[in-house]
Recover the amino acids of this structure.
């Protein structure tokens, strides 16, 4: 009977939880205080982890500063993960901006506009 979750999936979920805690409590960099870890994908051999993050201020300038801060703190975060997690090898961390939240908000706005146009167009068509 196969396992419900693979080892890499379990490690990815634990990495997500631990990184969120480390960013919130252990990081002294103020640029990382508003960062949310949205997802972690780990390779099958658990040597690399893609860490997806989002933040409230998605301006290009702020995003670049946050990306730089995360890249610089990757070694510190990896070392701290090694202390907390019981792994022989802590995966190398690669931070990527998660655009799904901004994209979802954009899609919601487009849908709302289309509904509003349909409503305005529907009212005019009923009187004819």
């Amino acid at each position: 009977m196969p396992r419900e979750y693979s080892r890499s999936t379990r490690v990815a979920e634990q990495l997500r939880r631990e990184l969120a805690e480390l960013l919130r409590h252990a990081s002294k960099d103020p640029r990382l205080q508003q960062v949310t870890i949205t997802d972690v994908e780990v390779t099958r051999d658990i040597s690399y982890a893609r860490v997806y993050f989002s933040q409230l201020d998605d301006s290009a300038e702020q995003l670049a500063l946050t990306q730089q801060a995360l890249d610089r703190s990757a070694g510190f975060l990896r070392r701290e993960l090694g202390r907390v997690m019981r792994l022989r090898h802590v995966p190398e961390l690669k931070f990527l901006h998660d655009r799904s939240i901004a994209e979802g908000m954009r899609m919601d706005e487009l849908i709302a506009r289309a509904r509003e146009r349909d409503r305005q167009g529907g009212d005019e068509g009923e009187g004819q």
